[in-house]
Amino acid sequence: MEPVISIRPLLAVAIAGLAALSVLLLNKREKLRDHVSPLAAIAMFAIVASMAPTVLAGGTVELRLFEILPGIDFAFRVDALGMVFATVSSLLWIVAAVYSIGYMRHLHEHAQTRFFACFATSLAAAVGGAFAANLFTLVIFYEVLSLVTYPLVYHHEDEEGWKGSRKYLVYLMGASKSVLLAALALTYAIAGSLDFVPGGLLAGANASAALLTVVYFCYLFGFAKAAVMPMHAWLPAAMVAPTPVSALLHAVAVVKMGVFCVLRVVFHVFGAGLVGGLGLGIATAYLVSFTILMASVYALTRDDLKARLAYSTVSQLSYVVLGAVLLSPVAMVGGIIHIAAHAFSKITLFFCAGSIYCASGKRNISDMAGIGRRLPWTMGAFFVASLSMIGVPPTAGFVSKWYLTLGSVQAGEIAFLIVLLASSVLNAAYFLPVSYVAFFGAEAQESPAAVREIPLVTIPLVATAILSVLMGVFPGYFLALAEGVVR
Amino acid sequence: MGFPLLSLIIFTPAAGAAVLMFLRSDDAVRWTALVVTVLDLVFSIVLLAGFDTTTHEMQFTETVPWVPALGITYALGVDGISALFVFLTALLSWISVLASWVAIERKLKAFMASLLAMQALMLGVFSSLDLFLFYVFWEAMLIPMYLIIGVWGGEGRVYAAFKFFLYTLAGSLLFLVGVIALYFHGGETFDILALTAQDLPFGVQSWLFFAFLIAFAVKVPMVPVHTWLPDAHVQAPTAGSIILAGVLLKMGAYGFLRFSLPMLPEASVYFSPLMLALSALAIVYGGLLALAQDDLKKLVAYSSISHMGFVTMGIFALNIRGLEGGILQMFNHGVTTGALFLFVGLIYERTHTRSIADYGGLMKVAPVYTVFLALFTLSSMALPGTNSFVGELLVLSGGFAANLAVGAAAVLGATLGAAYLLGMYRRVALGPPSVGARFKIRDVNAREMVAILPLAVFVLWVGLYPKPFLDIIDASVTHLLTQVHGRENGQ
Questions:
Q1: B181 close to B204: Cβ distance less than 8 angstroms
Q2: I need a labelling partner for A339 at 20 to 30 A (CA). Which of A203, B225, B269, B491 fits?
Q3: Is A162 within 8 Å of chain B by CB?
């Protein structure tokens, strides 16, 4: 099928960039400024959606801007995998933009202009990465995303904020300026190009197995945003950020960019054939299985709700990677759609944590006894999203886990089936008590009567909870895209 | 012979320096120097516009017999490599004048004259096609630079200037020995192109290679002959640092490209592992030294050692990516490190301290300054999307192709770069604004902005569309490679 040449990929990136610029220019006019982000989000989603029919039909939308070096262009190509990521990001930006306004206004946060400008730029980076046609373009957006989220992480500018954000940047930049840089240079030296090729750029490359193995692991750990252990510590450290930022990090952009990059490398740089041929699939599967289980155990021990959610993310991201490296078509589909399933559910959970904090100032789970009676919508949504994380039908998480388990059976790897099931039990063990305590725990005496839902905060989280269920009932769109990637 | 554009480019600043002598007021001196340097920049753009990128042949050549008895001629010409550096020199000279606008408080006239003389000589080095002429320009450069550091420098200026002079002179003397040896072995001519065509025996090549190596290594500078650099930089006035880092350090690498590689190909190939190892050492050692600095200017100075290691590594990878990357990094380093020294100067003018520990929270008091500082810091650490990344990617992929271990060491250097640059930026720009309380800081003004903006443009231009720059050097680099490998294969 002939690629469609269109300016729309660039437009989607530009609209978020322009939004950031407008936010900066409207610094003094808060009311007007706060309208920019939601409007830009809707426009971006519309642009992304307008390309969906082409991609669903098996086509691509392309825009080649200019040549950087021989074999390297600055170029966009919208394919099925990019579409999964871009749909999730642009859709969730709409709700996150509304939620941010509610959250920031309610808490009278400082530096809101910087906040919204960086937020919008990070969306430009996320969608730019999703649509990147090669590693060079992808890495540019990847790094922009690291940089513009840094001020969001240190937002509070207190001791804790500086410390957490430092760890954030050290991990992400450290990984990308060391092993990722080496991987890029080696790939360029070996293949003479950095393009994404269906079936793998390096498939059939003239290089030793040992060197290719090194390059592969350089990518896996270099894309530290995927948080494969031991490159995960930045994620819990980054929870010092305001909650909307956590949502951005955990659902909309950052970690999704990480696993997206890993999938790109597995599918379009190495190709499933080469990954399997070198025996890297199983090796990676064991590595991420360790991450899945270990992170869940960490999550169990955390009383701070956001910390528990952060470790849960570390664990869930490795599901995506696991699906890809099992190399069976069904497991790959499961891994890909888990990007969306996890995003919808995890953003709900973080929104809830923020809602609780806004309404009551509480962060620790042990202090949340009985809060479900004060915040029924919030804790109801939390419960729904928890079910999705555990993988209970009819939620989104069920669909992706179903494909993952089926895929590990198809791949003949029963060990990973056990990992998935054990992890689900662990998910239940650290999520369900939160809901239980919130609804059935005895409320502490001194709890102020003023704890109640904040509309601008609650509406988005209910919306994302509904999305989590909707995707469980109607997974067709994401399944079709994922099958398009695997085909 | 057409219009002598190169002579015009060289002698415009020289004439400007002479004119300055007759001026009375400081303002007249400033404006005259500015007009002269801008004019020269325009000429260099005309040069690039008329440059034919399809050939490696020397262009804009001029030949006038000078000392016929010894075969010395006044011969000028540029290929892609030198054309790029003629432009870089003109670009940075103009910015140096702006950087000295108010920073130089005494003997302004003499300072500007030295600056213009320096510019003329540097342009001469890049355009010479006669070895004797080259040597004259090369040596004469020492004098204005010595004055710039020794007269207008900081408190330790005399020591620093003397050290700079001694190191460079020691190297230059060996270079002179090499030049004379080359003259006699190469058929008693100083014509660089004729010398390049000579086929010297390997033994002669080896000796000459080491004579040249020491001369050029001091200029680059490569570890272990780098110790003059931090002293010179810390003491030099801002304009001196910009010229030193931006252009003077390129001279050494340019020497390798113009003399060692084409004239001594077999020796270059034979000794390339040594050169790669020295480059890797410079990259890592320079990075470690930069990491340990509290003085902002020293940090940038040591980072230069590390970055120039990337340049020599690219050159001695002796493949197309390495060479093009190395040359592009020379240009990038000129732009980026020139800008960083400019920024160090701007903040020093305001606070009279260079200790990073004294800064903090500049973002709150001088937002424009910190935004541009961020751009150049990120460029220096070769963030994807900036100029240095393109060069670094080329150098690394060339380096990896030449030797995996050397490539890995260079990557380690890149990691160190991220560490000391990001750490520096965080301590200077972010955090609580302790600086606002202690110093009166104003943000950049219009004149400073004029100096900053062109450099910022090049950071993004080369980062996102390096093709025009690579096109300029491409034919010359390809030809250089055939000179190196062709003759080696021919044996």
A1: yes
A2: A203
A3: yes
Give the DSSP letter string of A198-221. Answer: TT-SSTT-SS-HHHHHHHHHHHHH
Q: How far apart are CA B95 and CA B111, in angstroms?
A: 15
pTM: 0.92
Asked if residue A438 lies in contact with residue A368, where contact means CB atoms within 8 angstroms, the answer is: yes
How far does A143 lie from chain B, in Å, by closest CA?
7
Q: How far is it, in rounded angstroms, from Cα B380 to Cα B339? A: 10
Q: DSSP string of A132-149?
A: BSBHHHHHHHHHHHHHHH
Helical packing angle, B320-351 and B80-99, nearest 10°:
10
The Cα–Cα gap between A37 and A45 comes to 12
Closest-CA distance, B364 to chain A, in angstroms, reads: 11
Residue A154 DSSP one-character state: T
Count of other CB atoms within 10 angstroms of residue B315: 29
What's the pLDDT tens digit per position in A123-166? Answer: 999 999 999 999 999 999 999 999 999 999 988 888 888 888 99
Q: Which residues face B72 on adjacent strands?
A: B67
* Planar angle of CA A406, A410, A415, nearest 5 degrees: 80
**Selection from B69, B61, B226, B216 nearest residue B138 by Cα:** B216
Structural tokens at position A407: 């895929």
Do B101 and B30 form a contact (C-beta atoms < 8 A)? yes
Torsion of CA A7, A13, A15, A18, to 10 degrees: -120
Name the residue with tokens 């003759």.
B487
CB B276, CB B316: distance < 8 Å: yes
Question: In the numeric block, which tokens belong to residue B249?
Answer: 């350090």
Query: Which amino acid would we find at residue B67?
Result: V
Q: Which residues pair with A64 in a beta bridge?
A: A75
The position carrying tokens 């200019």 is A66
Strand order in the sheet with A61-69: A4-5, A61-69, A72-78
Per-10-residue mean pLDDT, chain B, length 491: 86 92 88 93 93 89 87 90 94 92 86 93 94 92 90 87 89 89 85 85 90 90 88 89 92 92 91 94 94 91 93 94 94 94 89 82 85 94 92 93 91 92 90 64 86 94 92 92 71 36
Coil vs helix vs strand at B189: coil
Residue type at position A259: V
- Taking each helix axis as running N to C, give the angle between helix B320-351 and helix B387-402, from 0 to 180 degrees, rounded to the nearest 10: 140
Instruction: Annotate B108-142 with three-state secondary structure.
Output: HHHHHHHHHHHHHHHHHHHHECEHHHHHHHHHHCH
A88, HSE (Cβ side, Cα atoms, 13 Å): 34
Interacting residues of A23 by C-beta distance below 8 A, sequence separation 6+: A33, A36, A37, A113, A116, A117, A120
Nearest Cα to Cα of residue B193 among B491, B485, B479: B479
User: Chain B residues within 8 A (CB-CB) of chain A?
Assistant: 321, 378, 381-385, 390, 392-394, 396-401, 404, 407-408, 411-412, 414-415, 417-419, 422, 426, 430-432, 464-467, 470
Rounded to a whole number of angstroms, the distance from the CA of B407 to the nearest CA of chain A is: 8
